[in-house]
Q: What sequence folds into this?
């Protein structure tokens, strides 16, 4: 899982505004998606990305999880799958991918971690806090222990923490 939260664990303001994420961090995220070759997102994140003109991310297979019927205007670049995290991973596995990147939002993140399907958590902390918005994980019942894999200072005010999920309860 790769996300850009605030230090108080928000991933968007109210009205889905994500403008607190720096341009440099967005570039880093896109290059990571290209390196992995795929990205899994929820229907809401898809809608926000589409509206802001950054969907689909180029050079990668974009998997959108939804129970809605959405016309695929990007055949070959985008696959709409159902709501099952395991099924989303199977689609990628069947295409030969060894690593899958889950990139939000809140509800999709919770579904994956709840089913013990997250191996690593990469968080690029942005230098801003706000009280209202979307949290990193939507409120589902899950509990996971983390082991710190690495810390990278990305810029003057941004830091990346990488964790392994060691105890998937
Ligand atoms: N800062 C960051 O790093 C970052 C990254 C990503 C997203 N975001 C932000 O996160 C916000 C969206 O988060 P969100 O939680 O509202 O929406 P989301 O997780 O992106 O999408 C939720 C929708 O995905 C569909 N879905 C499919 N499978 C699901 C499953 N297993 N579990 C839950 N939902 C599933 C459902 O839509 P259907 O009704 O169509 O089935 C559900 O309503 C946006 O503002 C986006 O900009 C921030």
A:
């Amino acid at each position: 899982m790769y996300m850009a939260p605030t230090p108080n664990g928000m991933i968007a303001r109210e009205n889905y505004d994500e403008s607190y994420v720096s341009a440099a961090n967005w570039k880093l995220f896109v290059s990571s998606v290209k390196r992995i070759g795929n990205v899994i997102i929820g229907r809401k994140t898809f809608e926000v990305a589409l509206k802001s003109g950054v969907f689909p991310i180029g050079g990668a297979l974009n998997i959108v999880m939804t129970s809605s019927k959405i016309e695929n205007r990007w055949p070959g670049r985008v696959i709409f799958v159902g709501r099952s995290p395991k099924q989303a991973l199977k689609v990628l596995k069947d295409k030969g991918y060894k690593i899958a990147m889950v990139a939000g939002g809140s509800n999709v993140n919770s579904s994956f971690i709840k089913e013990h399907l997250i191996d690593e958590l990469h968080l690029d902390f942005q230098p801003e806090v706000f009280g209202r918005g979307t949290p990193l994980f939507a409120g589902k019942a899950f509990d996971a222990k983390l082991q710190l894999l690495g810390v990278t200072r990305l810029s003057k005010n941004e830091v990346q923490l990488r964790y392994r999920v060691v105890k998937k309860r």
The longest strand covers residues 144-153. Residues 3-4, 11-12, 16, 18, 21, 41-45, 48, 65-68, 83, 85, 103-108, 111, 134, 138 surround NAP (CB under 6 Å). DSSP finds four helices and nine strands in the chain. The first helix runs from residue 23 to 36.
